[in-house]
Amino acid sequence: MKRKYAAIVLGLTMTLTTANISAVNIMAATASTAEEKQTKSEDSDSSQSEKENKSDSDNQEDGNEKQSEGEASDGEKPEGEAPDGEKPDGEPPEKPEGQEPNGGQGAPGEQSNGVESYEAVNDYTEDVTVENETVSSTGTDENAIHVSEGASAILKGLTVNRESEDSKGGDTSSFYGVGAAILATEGTAYVGQSSITTDAAGAAGIFAYGDGTVYTADTDITTQKDTAGGIHAAGGGTLYAWDMNVETNGESAAAIRSDRGGGKMVVDGGSLTAKNGGMFYTTNTESTITLSDVDITNAEDSEFFLKCTGNANERGWGTAGDNGADCLFTAVQQEMEGDVVWDSISQLDFYITDGSTLTGAVTDDETNAGDGGEGYCNVYVGEDCTWTVTGDSVLTGLSNSGTIVDEDGNTVTVKGSDGTVYVEGTGSYTVTVESYSDSADLSGSSEVTQWSDYQVEKPEALA
């Protein structure tokens, strides 16, 4: 079963030079899974029904989450003492349902019981406060800092360096946090005003796994190698971030990343830069991505804005031809530029709401869809919203209460796959659909845009 991953991004500044934010689950993040995808429902109208739980593989979010309203608390810095064990105001989101994190499902074709133990330069198993220190890790697949056994660790003003040419990366890094610079498993880490750099395969900057929770703020993270995400949650881990500056440079290395077992990440402020791939990519997983008033800068050679498709299984992400994605995407007062790509083994509901704009085409790419399936792509254009079409487009259902034009302001032809002409346009582009409505029901996007469901107050330990 695949897990759900929710990525909520509000008011965030994202600078992505050919960014690879595999959803979510954005940078969101993006959720991911390496387990085989279950057969999708044959009813393409089931977009509003509850989707099956899924376990997550490697997908990034562009996606990314940002609170647009609400002040952080102004608590004072603790004086050398770790917190008394109580979480900060606000309840963290519930862990995903399903198999417990330590059950470890293993990659396809193998049995895995997760990671029995971690090696770390500094292993904190009791409450501790560490300030203004440098921690360096050069061992193969070791963590620089590991917080576990219920410990609460305040880490402020640290310089953390993680470097190894011998690190293997792979599933243990992506799924369990092996080799990450800072890892919380069965404890809570407060990381503030720090600098984290990694130059090792699979070495994430900060990783929350299982019962681990991370609160981090005002911290710079730079990773260099493949599959080395910036901030990463998997196995049900929880991570809250404020005003982070995150840059990733390797392949499959989202600035915000999630993997098997999913997790919860809430990101408030900062900038995220990823230098490989398209903007948001979700595959072999279920993801919910919400963007609101996010400042996104695209590279000229960015391949897509959102890609919701199967994959060739080069990294063990499900079974080729049966590893599509289920994605609920909502834009709120959001400017978007780039193509939306989907395939017939995936399910995509794309909501353009509250004055949002999309400039790009919507294309059906069957490259990794095998024999095809009963998937769909439904696009909903709300009132006062605009879709500027930049090329011939193909989707399943189009519901439009707004404006659909080309870049010259000409109306675009909308016709059915059976030849029925719904809108006779004056421009050169055609949008081909299975169904069309001249009004858009946006109720399917309402729940995911409630920031209060995810909001948590910034801890005093990060003041």
UniProtKB/TrEMBL annotation:
Alphabetically ordered keywords of this record: Signal
InterPro entries, per database record: Autotransporter_pectin_lyase_C, Pectin_lyase_fold/virulence
Top-level taxon of the source organism: Bacteria
Extent of Basic and acidic residues compositional bias: 34-98
Region annotated Disordered, chain positions: 31-115
Residues of the signal peptide: 1-19
Protein name (database record): Carbohydrate-binding domain-containing protein
